[in-house]
Design goal:
mainly alpha, Tetracycline Repressor, domain 2, 2 domains, two-stranded antiparallel sheet
C-alpha cells in the first residue's frame, strides 16, 4: 500500500458519505476481511460434509489439507470479487466498509492476493489429494469470478440463480477429495445448495433493495419487484425440500437425516410463506437468518447421521 490511503468515516445523518485520509500499512485483519470469513465458514462446513459422507476415508492430515484448500480457494475468490466490485461496494451501505472502498488495501494488492491464493489452493489439492478435486475447485473459483462476478452480477436478475452454482461446489469437492470421482450422491449435495441459494440471497436483497438499485445491480427485487421475488423464493423453497431428501433415498444418510430435512424444509417453506404474507423487511430478515441456520443444521445432521461408521473410518483406533 501507499503511505497515505483512504479511510471511510461515518457521516452525520443526511450528509453524503465521505472519505478522509489515514496513514499506515494494511493490517492482517484487512487481508482476512478480504477473504469474506463469514461466507467462507459456511462454504467450508458444506465441503467438510461432502468429505465426511463420501464413501471411504482419508488420513486425518489429508482431510485437513482438503478442507484448508477449500477454505483458501473460497477466500481467494472473495478477494478477487472485492477487487472487481470495489466501485459498487463503495456505494452500497452494507459493503462500503470493506477494505478496498475503505482505502485500507490497494486494488492491485487485493487482486494479487486472490490470484496467488487461488493457484496455491488448486495446486495443493491436486498434489496432496487428487486432480479431480483440484479441477472442481478451480472450476468453482473460475465460475464465481468470471461467470458470476464479472458477467452475470451486473447484467441479469438471474445472477444468483446461475451464479449460485459457484457456492454449491464445496460438498462435491469434499466428496471428490475422498473418492477421486463425482458421483450421483455428490451431485445431489450440489443441488441442495444450488436450490437453497436463490431464496437465501433474495431474502437479503428484499430488505437491501435500495442498496442494489443505487449501485445499479439488477437483483430480482429491483428488476421484477418484491412481489415477484417473494413468489420465486417460495417456488425454490418448495423444490428444495424433495431434493434435500435425496441423500436419504440414495443411502448417503438414514432416517434421522430424512426426518430433519423434512422438518427443516417445512420451516423454510413456513418462513417463505410469512415473507409472502407480511411483505415486511422484518420477515425477509428473519427468512435470511433462518436460511443460514437451515443449511448449517441440514449438513450437521447429515454428518452426524454417519454416526460410529464415520469415526471408525477416520479414527479406526477409537472404535473396534
Amino acid at each position: 500500500m501507499t503511505e497515505t490511503s483512504l479511510k471511510l468515516s461515518s457521516p452525520p445523518a443526511g450528509q453524503a458519505f465521505e472519505a478522509t485520509p489515514v496513514h499506515g500499512e494494511a493490517r492482517v485483519a484487512d487481508f482476512v476481511a478480504l477473504l469474506k470469513p463469514r461466507v467462507m465458514s459456511l462454504v467450508v462446513f458444506s465441503g467438510l460434509a461432502g468429505l465426511i459422507v463420501a464413501p471411504g476415508s482419508l488420513h486425518p492430515l489429508l482431510a485437513a489439507v482438503a478442507i484448508l484448500c477449500i477454505a483458501v480457494a473460497a477466500g481467494a475468490a472473495g478477494a478477487i470479487n472485492m477487487w472487481y466490485d470495489r466501485d459498487i461496494d463503495a456505494i452500497m451501505q452494507r459493503t462500503r466498509w470493506r477494505p478496498l472502498p475503505a482505502g485500507k488495501i490497494e486494488p492491485q494488492e487485493a487482486l494479487a492476493f486472490g490470484v496467488v491464493l487461488s493457484l496455491f489452493s488448486v495446486m495443493l489439492m491436486g498434489l496432496a489429494l487428487n486432480w479431480t478435486a483440484a479441477a472442481i475447485l478451480a472450476l468453482a473459483n473460475a465460475f464465481y469470478v468470471f461467470v458470476y462476478t464479472m458477467w452475470l452480477k451486473r447484467r441479469t436478475p438471474q445472477n444468483i440463480v446461475i451464479g449460485g452454482a459457484a457456492g454449491a461446489f464445496p460438498p462435491m469437492i469434499g466428496w471428490a477429495a475422498v473418492t477421486g470421482s463425482v458421483d450421483l450422491e455428490a451431485i445431489f449435495l450440489f443441488l441442495i445448495i444450488f436450490m437453497w441459494t436463490p431464496p437465501h440471497f433474495w431474502a437479503l436483497s428484499l430488505y437491501r433493495q435500495g442498496d442494489y438499485a443505487k449501485a445499479g445491480v439488477p437483483m430480482l427485487p429491483v428488476v421484477a419487484g418484491k412481489a415477484a421475488t417473494r413468489r420465486q423464493m417460495l417456488l425454490y423453497s418448495l423444490l428444495l425440500v424433495p431434493i434435500s431428501l435425496a441423500p436419504a433415498l440414495l443411502g448417503t444418510a438414514g432416517w434421522i437425516y430424512a426426518l430433519a430435512a423434512t422438518l427443516l424444509g417445512a420451516g423454510m417453506i413456513g418462513f417463505n410463506l410469512r415473507v409472502l404474507r407480511e411483505k415486511s423487511d422484518q420477515a425477509a430478515r428473519q427468512m435470511f437468518g433462518y436460511s443460514i441456520l437451515y443449511l448449517f443444521l441440514l449438513f450437521t445432521v447429515l454428518i452426524l447421521d454417519r454416526g460410529p461408521g464415520l469415526l471408525a473410518g477416520y479414527f479406526p483406533g477409537l472404535i473396534g
